[in-house]
Write a structure and sequence with these properties.
Blueprint lengths: L1 H38 L4 H19 L4 H24 L3 H6 L1 H26 L4 H10 L6 H9 L6 H32 L6 H39 L6 H19 L4 H13 L8 H21 L3 H33 L2 H10 L5 H9 L10 H29 L5
Length: 415
């Protein structure tokens, strides 16, 4: 018995060692990929997903991914998505958005409606996918990833122009609405999977109403926390910790708020986003960006690596045809949805630049796609998942290349 126990302990130590080795190598690879792709003005997200897919390819030959390894990567991915949405919330400047709400809301809401509708129509009627899958794809395609192109605008010296600020405001509204739509989708998904079409209208209305009340109450609690508790709490922590250690406390509070959202029936991602919004209004809570960037760069890549791991080789062949159709929906939806209303507010050149800049899909789109796999057995088939990943990669690669050439020529007073 003692020998068996020692043997099992040695095997557990070996498995744990392999898990830590893989995590360490993945983290090193992610850092190198980010540095390399930034020199090419390409988003690191592309490299992270490809890294995850390469790990999956190697596993098909070497069979080194154990159940414990995949569970560890899943856990790190959950932490990563929490940190990711926390950062999205922290970078949302609501007071600036409210000042620009008139112009930004017209463009943003039109863009969301058009891109979501086109995504749904293409998947439901053209590809003939199910109702829930089509809603997932349509919702995922509403969310822009402005971070993919903001660096190009900044390097071109155009981010502080009127056109650049309008882009940030529209994208910010886009992110907020994308998170809200994601939360609503995940709450009504169980009703849709019941397939009782006669009662689905009333049930969806009831479920949506309950969700709206819960979201308002949670938002109210977060608002009260931001107004009356956040600053006193930060002053208390500042007596014991200074930046960058203080940033760790801020992120830890964000995790607590995210877990409360999870207990209330929302996803951790929704809670993390609201937690980020709480701290976005107080500059003292995120003074040390370096510390937060370290946390971000450590955990967030594992979310996208996990997406790459989720692509199965046997699904790629059927995914390529689907990806072509979804790419068309992704490019046309955002470009048309943002360019058309923008023409009312500004000229055609800035409107075209805005349309191109709104095309990329990454963080929120991938969160919706990834988490939808847990909603129901057939909610996100493997081929559709792979097609969505390919689509997001395409939308992240092409727009920055186009903008790098167009911005200096079409925007005045930039180098």
């Amino acid at each position: 018995f003692f020998k068996i126990k020692v043997t099992l302990s040695a095997q557990s130590t070996l498995v744990l060692g392999l898990v830590i080795l893989l995590v360490g190598l993945a983290a090193i690879s992610a850092a190198l990929i980010k540095a390399f792709l930034e020199r090419l003005s390409l988003p690191a997200v592309v490299g992270y997903i490809i890294l995850g897919f390469c790990i999956r390819l190697f596993d098909t030959e070497l069979n080194f991914l154990t159940e414990q390894t995949e569970q560890t990567i899943d856990f790190l991915a959950y932490v990563g998505v929490t940190v990711l949405l926390f950062r999205v919330g922290m970078e949302s400047q609501l007071h600036n958005l409210l000042n620009q709400l008139g112009k930004a809301s017209i463009i943003g809401l039109t863009c969301i409606a058009v891109s979501g509708t086109i995504g749904f129509v293409f998947t439901y009627w053209l590809i003939n996918l199910g109702l829930l899958t089509s809603l997932i794809v349509g919702t995922a395609l509403t969310a822009t990833s402005v971070g993919m192109v903001a660096a190009v605008w900044e390097k071109s010296g155009a981010i502080k122009t009127n056109e650049g600020q309008l882009l940030l405001d529209v994208a910010e509204l886009d992110d907020i609405m994308g998170v809200v739509l994601m939360a609503l989708l995940f709450n009504v998904a169980p009703v849709i999977t019941a397939h009782n079409m006669q009662a689905i209208g009333g049930t969806l209305l009831k479920t949506g109403g309950i969700f709206a009340v819960k979201l308002i109450l949670f938002g109210l609690l977060c608002t009260l926390f931001a107004l009356y508790l956040e600053k006193p709490l930060m002053r208390f922590f500042q007596r014991f910790e200074k930046p960058p250690e203080l940033t760790l406390l801020v992120v830890s509070i964000g995790f607590v708020i995210a877990s409360v959202a999870g207990l209330l029936g929302f996803s951790l991602a929704i809670g993390a986003f609201f937690a980020g919004l709480i701290f976005s209004r107080d500059p003292s809570s995120n003074k040390s960006r370096i510390a937060f960037d370290i946390i971000y760069d450590l955990f967030v890549p594992f979310f996208f690596i996990g997406i790459g791991l989720g692509i199965r080789l046997e699904n790629l062949a059927s995914a390529l045809g689907l990806a072509g159709i979804l790419m068309l929906a992704a490019f046309v939806g955002k470009f048309l949805g943002s360019t058309a209303p923008s023409l009312v507010c500004q000229g055609w050149k800035p409107s075209v630049l805005l349309g191109i800049s709104m095309i990329p899909r990454a963080e929120i789109a991938m969160i919706i796609t990834q988490r939808s796999k847990t909603l129901a057995k057939d909610a996100m088939p493997g081929s559709v998942f792979a097609a969505m990943v390919i689509t997001c990669l395409a939308t992240c690669i092409l727009p920055p290349i186009l903008l790098k050439r167009a911005i200096p020529r079409w925007i005045k007073n930039v180098r």
